[in-house]
Design goal:
Distance between the termini of chain C: 21 Å
Structural class of chain B: alpha/beta
CATH superfamily of chain B: P-loop containing nucleotide triphosphate hydrolases
Number of helices of chain B: 10
Radius of gyration of chain C: 20 Å
Helix content of chain B: 25-40%
Radius of gyration of chain B: 20 Å
CATH architecture of chain C: 3-Layer(aba) Sandwich
Structural class of chain C: alpha/beta
Chains: A mainly alpha (about 300), B alpha/beta (about 280), C alpha/beta (about 280)
Number of domains of chain B: 1
Number of helices of chain C: 11
Order of helices and strands of chain C: EEEHEEEHEHHHHHEHEHEEHH
Largest sheet of chain B: 6 strands, mixed
Oligomer: heterotrimer
Number of domains of chain C: 1
CATH topology of chain C: Rossmann fold
Strand content of chain C: 15-25%
Chain lengths: ~300, ~280, ~280
Amino acid sequence: MADTTAIESISLDPSRRARLAEFWYYFSENRGAVIGLWIFVALVVIALLAPLIAPHLPYAQYRDATLLPPFWQDGGRAAFPLGTDAVGRDMLSRLLFGARYSLFIGVFVTTIALVGGIIIGVIAGYFGGWIDTVIMRVMDVILAFPSLLLALVLVAVLGPGLTNAMIAIALVLQPHFVRLTRAAVMSEKGREYVTAARVAGAGPLRLMFRTILPNCMAPLIVQATLSFSNAILDAAALGFLGMGAQPPTPEWGTMLAEAREFILRAWWVVTFPGLAILITVLAINLMGDGLRDALDPKLKRS
Amino acid sequence: MTEKVLEARNIVRDYHVGGGIFGKSRTLRAVKGVGFSVEKGKTLAIVGESGCGKSTLARIITLIDAPTEGELFIEGKKVDIARERLTPEMRQKVQIIFQNPYGSLNPRQKIGDVLGEPLLINTNKSAAERRDLAMNMLLKVGLEAKHFNRYPHMFSGGQRQRIAIARALMLNPSLLVLDEPVSALDLSVQAQVLNLLADLQDEFKLTYVFISHDLSVVKYISDDVMVMYYGEAVEYGSRDAVFSNPQHDYTKTLFAATPRADVASIKARLAKKAA
Amino acid sequence: MALLEIENLVVEFATASGPFRAVDGVSLSVEQREVLAIVGESGSGKSVSMLAVMGLLPWTAKVTADRMVFAGTDLLKLSDAERRKMVGKDMAMIFQEPMASLNPCFTVGFQIEEVLRVHMGMDRTQRRARAIELLKQVGIPDPEQRLSSFPHQMSGGQCQRVMIAIAIACNPKLLIADEPTTALDVTIQKQILDLLMRLQAEHGMGLIMITHNMGVVAETADRVIVQYKGRKMEEADVLSLFERPKSNYTKALLSALPENATGDRLPTIADYVTEEAPAEGAVQ
């Protein structure tokens, strides 16, 4: 007997839009976050359109133009706006293609760490007791290692390469997600709506992932953005140490490593990849701050 | 003879506290051998102050926690969740409504999903059937169709309590445990929710266990009253007997402490002050 | 002369969705030695108006009034520093959540003595003696021992007693109690109310009792102001308010009390006041 027309007319959801508007209100109050967001969007566009906007192929070597300075310096050529490296590859093109690698690393590492961390964290927080103790002690052990050192060891075991480096970094970043998820789950678990769902007959899996988890997402999203920049940074560091992406991949850290010996003769081969890493990481961190302001109700001003 | 929906015999509940790596664990007895029964369509009020064990008892009656000792019968069938798994049929018979309307609804769940969830878990009704049933219940508790797709934070305390009541009724329970359902609400809203509960009791022949610390509400709604003090039932009887002739000292103290809002007692107070 | 006089108080909050008027043109006065109760449901602006008097509102609030005079001092003209000197000394406030109002990191003694140090400038021995005396006054057994307790080692009722001790430490002329017993059990509520009434009589303080509980009003007040949605609905002495309520809203509140129930169902506010025209029953 329910009035179906009434149901249809209400299926439009006004609250999601209102929530989005509120989110944007708090996010946009943080100027740095908005700047960070725009830089990040620009990076994504660059990464997607790299083959179209790059003047050269990233691997193309111009033997007649090795270690050319940027165009505004004496001896620079307009064809290579940011100069070339020791084997005559265009710096700008390599940097543009490098954005693809960095963003891919960020997405891949964060996804693995996030998914793994959430599953382990929810289990630890929900069941408690000895399960929790065992999981958390293992996480403590992982956290006790300096993260880069542990990633190095893992790569040494798995063998160098971008994929292995990403797995290693994901493993190193995961305990942060586990701790965060566990803490959030433990505080939500005692709330009455969880008991209410239990009384309605919900089983443990449903309670864990449908009832509790969506209410723990805000801090996780913030941590995920910060991990994103961490992953890029760690991958660059591993690349620089020769354990990550291997030459001639145009990954920013690897580019830095290749350019090490020319640091005194040709400043541009080290400065531009370094700047690229700096700007990307800074932009994402700024964005993460804004997200925290917007998503964390404790920080919200009336 | 009327049917007993709930019967509890000698319910005991212990908690173990402390007992970390170094501490010695202590046993705390929150409920000390309480027994009572409620007939179909009646309301038993459990009165007591914080820490008297009434909420622990509520969780036991609602089959969330198992009692340490004692027997619990629901519609004449013995239930022991410590030994055997609770069947979905039993699960559906008892539902609970909590005190805090702000904590008892999942903030990320639309009202329609809040009401549909119990059906989704316990029955194999189609999505359309679930939606129709949820919509009917929403209207029954005095809300409107347009509220179906909203999130809990868009509702006032009284409206949320109505939603919680609707959710509890989705599975056609025979027993409803009300854990301080109106003490977080404003006076006027409290009156509306109490009226709603009375209407629903008449319509569905519901049995209530009404837990409260507010004697005026208890006097208004209950048929039988049980007064708890430090885990013990110090007074148990019909409403009229308990209110007109309290036996235990604690019950008397409780009655004396309840503020009176009638003209005669104001006059008496003012006269005393002037003297 | 009245102890506190407020005329046409308006408090507005700046929110994401535009300004929100929490208090809308409320006037009130409290005499010395008088107990004034402000009754209202949540959202009636009863706490906000008193926080405005104390100057304790966040910066998002805009407070305006035609007149706001406390014991001969114009509160509107005070600088922040001058007002801080007055708040906690001549005008003190206690809150609903006793556990949350005390700082969990410090002992009870430290928190009482802090007030004495800031406002009275007493030395260490004087402070200690006064703190013990205060705890005795509010009926805490073993005051010497209790000085070194932390808030979590005490019950809610005891914490509220300590809050009262802190509030009366400097012999204030006016005490504002914001739902002082709402979080407490009935038997404890009775004790705290008795304590407040005793202290009020002994010290000759003005007392403003903010509450939603008609029973508490009936047990304590001399005069009552009923507020609804930021507006004053009615002002009357306690007896006539309960005997002959003038505004529809007050009538509704009184008849919604379960102990006044006559029929099978309780009358609700909606039977008296329509949502659209809440001011319809406004008086004065």
